[in-house]
């Protein structure tokens, strides 16, 4: 299982944490841009910033040796909030169907329950799998492409099938990675007590 955040330094003022805080603060702005004025260009810019800062804060944390307990909480929290905000806004604007959104949210709820059960039994969270990383990669490209595809330009027409391809692959991998978390959790809980480890 992955190392628990408590093993990381208890630091607050770091560059990666600042990037994550800004990313979190932009979530309501992103929602407002999508649902209020429907300023898709600005919403796309916020989404791009989110993706770039998500990559940058991890790189900077390792490069500057600024990994922290707070960062281990903020980074995935920001990712989940952007995913949730995007899914909610896209459903309200009829960009994606409700059933599709429920599948994505249901998978996240299942993983949250797995993590809660593991912590109650003395484990850290499950290790991030390559399938999970690939799912995140596909969905991170799918969301901005879906926004671009809402326009009426030639570029939007070209982007549309590419966006849906990323959606299909990303969603399939997202659900698969959730099932892998479920398998990891079950295996950990069924391990003999003397050999259990975090």
Description:
Helix 1 (15-35) runs antiparallel to helix 2. Helices cover 75% and strands 0% of the residues. It contains 6 helices and no strands. Mean pLDDT is 84; it is low at 1-5 and 194-198. The N and C termini lie close together (5 Å). It is an all-alpha fold and 198 residues long.
Number of helices: 6
Helical content band: over 70%
In angstroms, what separates the terminal alpha carbons? 5 Å
Q: Which H/E pattern describes the elements?
A: HHHHHH
Write the layout of secondary structure elements.
Layout: H1 15-35, H2 40-63, H3 69-92, H4 98-120, H5 130-148, H6 154-190
Helix pairs in contact: 1-2, 1-3, 2-5, 3-4, 4-6, 5-6
Question: What brief labels describe this structure?
Answer:
198 residues; mainly alpha; 6 helices; 75% helix; globular; disordered N terminus
Brief synopsis:
The protein is mainly alpha-helical.
């Amino acid at each position: 299982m992955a190392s628990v955040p408590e093993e990381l330094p208890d630091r607050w003022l770091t560059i990666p944490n600042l990037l994550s805080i800004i990313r979190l603060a932009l979530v309501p702005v992103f929602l407002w841009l999508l649902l209020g004025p429907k300023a898709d260009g600005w919403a796309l810019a916020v989404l791009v910033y989110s993706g770039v800062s998500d990559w940058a804060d991890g790189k900077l944390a390792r490069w500057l040796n600024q990994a922290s307990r707070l960062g281990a909480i903020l980074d995935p929290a920001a990712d989940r909030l952007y995913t949730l905000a995007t899914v909610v806004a896209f459903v309200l604007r009829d960009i994606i169907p409700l059933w599709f959104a429920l599948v994505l949210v249901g998978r996240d709820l299942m993983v949250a329950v797995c993590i809660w059960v593991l912590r109650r039994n003395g484990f850290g969270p499950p290790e991030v799998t390559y399938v999970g990383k690939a799912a995140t990669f596909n969905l991170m490209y799918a969301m901005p492409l879906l926004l671009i595809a809402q326009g009426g330009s030639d570029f939007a027409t070209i982007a549309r099938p590419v966006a849906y391809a990323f959606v299909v692959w990303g969603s399939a991998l997202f659900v698969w990675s959730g099932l892998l978390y479920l398998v990891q959790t079950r295996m950990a809980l069924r391990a003999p007590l003397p050999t259990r480890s975090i």
